[in-house]
Amino acid sequence: MILGGTFDMIRFAAAGLILLSAGAASAQSRDSLAVGVNAGTPGAGVQIEARFGPIFVLRGGVETLGYDFDASYDDVDYGGRFDFDTVSGFIDLHPLANAFTISGGAYLGPREIGLDATPSAPVNLGGQTFTPAQVGTLSGKIKLKDVAPYIGLGFDNTFTGSSRWGIRATAGVAWSEKPEVTLDSSGGTLSNDPAFRARLAQEAASIQSDAEDYGLFPVVQLGLNYRF
User: Fold this and answer.
1) In the chain, where the domains are located
2) Degrees (nearest 5) of the Cα angle 90, 96, 99?
3) What is the distance between the alpha carbons of residues 179 and 181, in angstroms, rounded to a whole number?
4) For domain 3-227, which architecture applies?
């Protein structure tokens, strides 16, 4: 992940949230803005909400997600890691002018899943069996598209309750096109062999087929807001 790109994304998000705040401030004289924190499947982050009348709310945030997991593709056991750094923007509709919300928007930013494996027994890659000495260390990436549209339902009483504190709970789904997968080898006796690398490309295509489910990402979030 390129750190500079993440900083650029954060600066972009901050500018967008400032504009959002200014627009809301001009639309409503009081109780039109809220800031908060949230956590869920997209990660942990901060958000700002701006109300435009009893039905429309604009919401933006920045989230980060990073955790390790184990995954198996074909007969290779990988250690994996999710690394998502996203900016999000949504329109929240309150059709009944209460806490019930219908949300639509998108997550923007780099979303990658890293894969690493050092086989200790012969493994099949691209339809052919190789020894651990031939393979060395495998490293790969499952890269999801940087734009993931989102739709969902939720509860948000930030602007409908009597307290300045509000709770937001949402559930929905974000999706993107088929992920791109790359797979490489280092430290093996065949790591630089063209025929072996062709097998790695075939294996990456197989992983890509198995990883299509990552393109459909469930979103469950819980947030705490303060209205001012």
Assistant:
1) 3-227
2) 60
3) 6
4) Beta Barrel (2.40)
The two tokens of residue 18 are 């400032």
168 CB burial (10 A radius; 0-12, 13-18, 19+): buried
* pTM metric for this prediction: 0.77
Return the structure tokens found at 91. 């329109």
C-alpha 169, offset from chain centre: 18
Q: Residue 48 has which token pair?
A: 């700002």
Q: Residue 12 in 3-state DSSP?
A: helix
List, for residues 48-81, the tens digit of each pLDDT value.
Answer: 999 998 899 999 999 999 989 998 888 899 999 9
Distance, C-alpha 171 to centroid of its chain: 15
> Cα separation of 179 and 143, whole Å?
5
Q: What is the maximum span of the chain, computed from C-alpha positions, in angstroms? A: 70
